[in-house]
Structures
1.
Amino acid sequence: MAGDGHAKEDMGPDSRPAPAPESPGASKPHRPPGYASKPHRPPGYAYEHFDRAAQLRRMLLFSLARWLMTVALACSIYALLWSFSSKTALTNDKKREFNGLIIGLSIGLGLNTASSIKAITAEVRWWLLSLGPWSPRESDLILQSENLSRLILLGCTSRRLIVRLFVAFFLLVNIASQVALAALGLTYNLNPADKVTVTKPGLVSVPDLSSIQTAKVLSSSNPSQAISALRYTANSYGLVALTYGFGVLSEVPQPGAIFNPDNNLTYCGGHNSCRYVFFEATTVNSSYYSMVATSRYVSTSASCQSWRIVRGGNGMQRSIVVGDANNTEFGPLPALNGPDQTLFMYDPEQPSGDTWSVVSAMEASSKEPWFYRCNVSVGPVQNAVVKEHLLGANLSRMAVSAIALQGYGASTTTGSSNSTARLQFQSYPAEAWFGSPQRGDVGGMGLMMAQFSAGVIAVTAQSNSNIVVPGLVPLKGVTVEIPHWSYVHLVLGLTVGLQLLFAVVALATTSRVQVRGHSHLAMASLLRPVLHGVSSRASAANGRQIASMLGASAQLSYVPSGRAGGYHVETDH
């Protein structure tokens, strides 16, 4: 520090090396007549004189180094919070890593801030000492004021306003720095992941997609795979899917997203297509349950043609004539339900496959009836890894025609039999979602059929029993949440900004006086003239006792030294 090299100015001439004595027999050098001898000067030292500019440069360098360390620690904490809060979820290992880093950096910032405040106090104390004179006890406590306990004792000992303001200011600064660091821990939260979590390879539970399981729909206690049971269950599941809702493709859950029953189950978009994303869950023997979205999905689509009905479109005629190039007649209709309803029809005897079928629809109306013919298809499961991820033939075949499937009940135009080999049909009123009139819009009708097919697959995946296969096990994840970044900016910004402000004020204040360092030798040299009369009697005395030995009327002053330009301590009685 600035005072370490100025001990010489108070050491006096006795500290200079004495000249070597001349031997009695030594001959003096011959000098020419008229030569005047110069007076003897003892050797000098470079640090005899106080260099104010050098002190300012040194203090500026040290203050800048302390401030840059604070900036580096504050930036590290900010980068750590930003990095971990931007992650969707953390594993327990990452959580421990975050806790270790944030605690370590916070401790480092706290120690550096406390050290900087202590250094500023140690510099400003010399300015305060120069405002004397002071009693020996006050002077002793001022010189120890960088110690927090001595700072408090100084405030209790001295009655001078400037001292109490000095003590109050640095006490508040120390307390504020610790409060700011404590508040930093309140700016972020570690919460269990409730939207997205992390996964690792292992065994998971996935739905059995080999077929539609009918036990949850039929009254029979024995699950049935009869064609009528499958058709009835498929149509029921398509209607149930309405309760889950349909979203847009931009809302498709990303891999790792935790299942939320409030979210939509299927998602639809352009080209009359819909998509269902498959989920995986922890096995039944796990200590916790979690179900997350995967990268696997299946898409359904429908392409339609439409014609206006030119005769019989009110839903009360056995047959209808559509307005195509040939005025084709279609009939007999399987049901006469009148206007304001849509009748969907599927003929099992017509060409179809495991993943596609042709479904017809008559949009009955007394004003604007329409007839549609649609090709409905379901695609392969994307990103499937094992065969258990694929759709069974029964499931895909039922899904594409489910909107028209009836299963049980009348299937012929006369309603007199229950033959499953004849036309399957379902009628939906215009007030229902799947009965809403499209008025010839092939895109709207195709999207409606794709929605129904995707809903069948989605509800089947939710309702069927699970099987255990290799997959990505969802883990218990945590997230770093920062509700208000402005609080982080405030805490770190004030910590960095106020330290810089205090350092600048300290430099401006202490540049007027000589700032001594922490060297005990330099301090002993400074105080030697004051303690000359105490001598060795005070070898076991404490500060209070030495102050009393100097006398009640003694006053110490830290004043400029005219000879060397520095400062020294003098005593007045």
2.
Amino acid sequence: MVRSSTTTTKRKWIKMMLYIITPLLIFSTLVAVNHLKNNSEIVSKSQNEAIWFVLQLTKEYSEFVYQLQNYQFENSSHDEMMIQYEILWSRFNTIVNNSQIMHFDQFKGAVDEINSHFERVKMLEYRLLSLSSPQETQPVLQLFRQDYENLMVFLNYKFRLSSGDLGDRITAISEVETVIRYLLITTLLMGALMAYLLLRESHSHHALAMKDSLTGINNRLWLNQKLRELELNNTSFYFYLIDLDEFKEINDTMGHHAGDELLIEVARRLSNLSCKDYCAARMGGDEFAIIELCQPTGDVNSCISDQLTGVFNRPAMFAGSFHPISASIGVSQFPKAAKSVSEVLKQADFAMYEVKQQGKDGLLHYRSLSSLAENQRVIS
């Protein structure tokens, strides 16, 4: 008993810990997911928007170098080349003067470096304007090309390879992802364990609800459910309603404890019959019931009828000594005699009452009421 109590206490403690830890894990996971989402949004927004402007800048710079080269080979005019320069100038100016809006402030040193290239481009503007012929273009082209290549090296390093704060954020996100992965696995395991415990507890409660607390056999709730199931499936069965004789007198003269001992002993005997396809239940008080599925032949002389003789012809131990016992038993058959569960119960009760009227200690099939003397059999 002490061991059982300790086990029950341990299970309650484990369940309580699960109820506390699982919500905390779920909350922690949600917080981590939200943190990851915020970091991802920041990185994604800053990276995507900044990189878009960087790509536009490199594209316009490449176009300008190309136009300047075309001018050198007289494939484009000076005006066309200057138009491309103006586009490049405006792209630089947009990035430098709107760096916070474009999230360039997320990349340390990027704006300063781009601004230095912008200043260099502006310093070379007068040389573009002073070009009098394509033959003078080579030195200027070389300066712009060198500046373009240096800018590309920096941008590739800053936005694609190292990326400063972006790298730190990506590392942080990776760490958060790892934590979330473990949190999710742990939460799933804890949730599965909790679901298992709740399911097992539910099954246990359901099983207890179907058992008689005193005798441990099936109770009236289980019996009614079983009868409805058999009726729904139109399964043929015998129903035995058993009422212990003189049970009230035993309770009154020997005490309720003696009556409980008798009920437990009768339940034990009914549960240990050697017949197949039967089940026993306590309906309440001193009444028991047995359901026996009919054989294909529908033989009335069923296994249970013969076995019940041995159940009540032996004395039972209660109140410290052996005492003779007997019972009045009414039998009904579905669907041969009764067409519904209510008829089964009424017919068995009627047959059992007839046994009581005839002196108790006997068994009677409802279908044989027309010849009571012939069919009644004393169990002694």
